[in-house]
Design a protein that fits this description.
Length: 129
Protein backbone atom coordinates (compact mmCIF):
# COMPACT_ATOMS: atom_id res chain seq x y z
CA UNK A 1 0.00 0.00 0.00
CA UNK A 2 1.67 3.26 -1.13
CA UNK A 3 1.55 6.72 0.46
CA UNK A 4 -1.91 8.36 0.16
CA UNK A 5 -0.43 11.62 -0.97
CA UNK A 6 2.57 11.02 -3.23
CA UNK A 7 2.00 7.29 -3.94
CA UNK A 8 5.59 6.38 -3.03
CA UNK A 9 6.15 2.77 -1.94
CA UNK A 10 7.21 2.42 1.67
CA UNK A 11 10.73 1.22 2.39
CA UNK A 12 13.49 1.60 4.93
CA UNK A 13 14.01 5.13 3.64
CA UNK A 14 10.37 6.01 3.27
CA UNK A 15 8.87 5.16 6.61
CA UNK A 16 5.17 4.57 6.94
CA UNK A 17 3.28 6.98 9.19
CA UNK A 18 -0.36 6.97 10.03
CA UNK A 19 -2.57 10.05 10.24
CA UNK A 20 -4.25 9.99 13.62
CA UNK A 21 -7.38 11.57 12.19
CA UNK A 22 -8.18 9.48 9.10
CA UNK A 23 -5.83 6.56 9.89
CA UNK A 24 -4.53 6.43 6.33
CA UNK A 25 -0.86 5.78 5.61
CA UNK A 26 1.58 8.44 4.51
CA UNK A 27 5.31 8.53 3.98
CA UNK A 28 7.54 10.44 6.37
CA UNK A 29 7.92 13.19 3.78
CA UNK A 30 4.18 13.84 3.49
CA UNK A 31 3.25 13.40 7.14
CA UNK A 32 5.69 15.27 9.30
CA UNK A 33 6.01 15.02 13.02
CA UNK A 34 4.98 17.93 15.16
CA UNK A 35 1.66 19.71 15.21
CA UNK A 36 0.02 16.33 15.66
CA UNK A 37 0.50 13.69 12.99
CA UNK A 38 -2.43 14.89 10.93
CA UNK A 39 -2.27 14.76 7.14
CA UNK A 40 -2.75 17.83 4.96
CA UNK A 41 -6.35 17.05 3.90
CA UNK A 42 -7.34 16.38 7.53
CA UNK A 43 -5.80 19.64 8.67
CA UNK A 44 -7.79 21.52 6.04
CA UNK A 45 -11.00 19.66 6.92
CA UNK A 46 -10.47 20.43 10.61
CA UNK A 47 -10.72 24.20 10.13
CA UNK A 48 -13.87 25.86 11.38
CA UNK A 49 -15.92 27.32 9.91
CA UNK A 50 -15.14 25.30 6.82
CA UNK A 51 -15.25 27.20 3.56
CA UNK A 52 -15.80 25.68 0.17
CA UNK A 53 -12.80 27.42 -1.32
CA UNK A 54 -10.44 26.04 1.32
CA UNK A 55 -11.32 22.42 0.50
CA UNK A 56 -11.76 22.85 -3.26
CA UNK A 57 -8.22 21.61 -3.96
CA UNK A 58 -8.67 18.35 -2.01
CA UNK A 59 -8.96 15.06 -3.85
CA UNK A 60 -12.34 13.40 -4.31
CA UNK A 61 -10.96 10.49 -2.32
CA UNK A 62 -10.08 12.72 0.62
CA UNK A 63 -13.57 14.17 0.64
CA UNK A 64 -15.22 10.75 0.42
CA UNK A 65 -12.99 9.39 3.16
CA UNK A 66 -13.87 12.33 5.41
CA UNK A 67 -17.62 12.01 4.83
CA UNK A 68 -17.52 8.26 5.47
CA UNK A 69 -15.81 8.87 8.80
CA UNK A 70 -18.64 11.24 9.68
CA UNK A 71 -21.22 8.60 8.71
CA UNK A 72 -22.45 10.80 5.90
CA UNK A 73 -23.57 8.82 2.88
CA UNK A 74 -21.91 9.84 -0.36
CA UNK A 75 -24.21 7.68 -2.44
CA UNK A 76 -25.54 9.60 -5.40
CA UNK A 77 -22.67 12.08 -5.29
CA UNK A 78 -20.97 11.88 -8.66
CA UNK A 79 -19.51 15.34 -9.01
CA UNK A 80 -16.76 16.71 -6.81
CA UNK A 81 -18.93 19.80 -6.47
CA UNK A 82 -21.57 17.75 -4.70
CA UNK A 83 -19.02 16.31 -2.29
CA UNK A 84 -17.72 19.79 -1.52
CA UNK A 85 -21.22 21.02 -0.73
CA UNK A 86 -21.89 17.97 1.40
CA UNK A 87 -18.68 18.51 3.42
CA UNK A 88 -19.33 22.20 3.99
CA UNK A 89 -23.00 21.83 4.91
CA UNK A 90 -22.30 18.87 7.19
CA UNK A 91 -19.39 20.44 9.04
CA UNK A 92 -21.14 23.77 9.48
CA UNK A 93 -24.37 22.19 10.65
CA UNK A 94 -25.29 22.32 14.32
CA UNK A 95 -25.51 18.53 14.51
CA UNK A 96 -21.85 18.11 13.69
CA UNK A 97 -20.73 20.61 16.32
CA UNK A 98 -22.79 18.85 18.99
CA UNK A 99 -21.49 15.45 17.96
CA UNK A 100 -17.92 16.73 17.90
CA UNK A 101 -18.16 17.77 21.54
CA UNK A 102 -19.15 14.25 22.54
CA UNK A 103 -17.31 10.98 22.48
CA UNK A 104 -17.78 8.77 19.45
CA UNK A 105 -19.59 6.12 21.51
CA UNK A 106 -22.43 8.55 22.22
CA UNK A 107 -23.06 9.25 18.55
CA UNK A 108 -25.99 6.90 18.14
CA UNK A 109 -27.87 7.97 21.24
CA UNK A 110 -27.23 11.55 20.35
CA UNK A 111 -28.65 11.05 16.89
CA UNK A 112 -31.97 9.82 18.27
CA UNK A 113 -31.93 12.49 20.92
CA UNK A 114 -31.44 15.27 18.38
CA UNK A 115 -34.26 14.10 16.16
CA UNK A 116 -36.54 13.88 19.19
CA UNK A 117 -35.75 17.45 20.12
CA UNK A 118 -36.49 18.57 16.59
CA UNK A 119 -39.85 16.86 16.66
CA UNK A 120 -40.71 18.42 19.97
CA UNK A 121 -39.67 21.85 18.80
CA UNK A 122 -41.72 21.39 15.68
CA UNK A 123 -44.75 20.34 17.72
CA UNK A 124 -44.25 23.36 19.93
CA UNK A 125 -44.18 25.69 16.96
CA UNK A 126 -47.42 24.23 15.70
CA UNK A 127 -48.95 24.72 19.10
CA UNK A 128 -47.87 28.34 19.32
CA UNK A 129 -49.11 29.10 15.82
ZN1 LIG B 1 4.20 10.65 0.54
ZN1 LIG C 1 -5.66 12.29 7.64
Amino acid sequence: MPCESCAVQFSVFKRKRVCYECERYYCSGCLRRGGGAMCAPCRVLATRPLSRSSIAHLKVRDLQCFLQRQNVSTRGCVEKDELLSLCVSHVNSAAYRRRGARSASGAFTLKGFTSNINEQTFALYKYVA
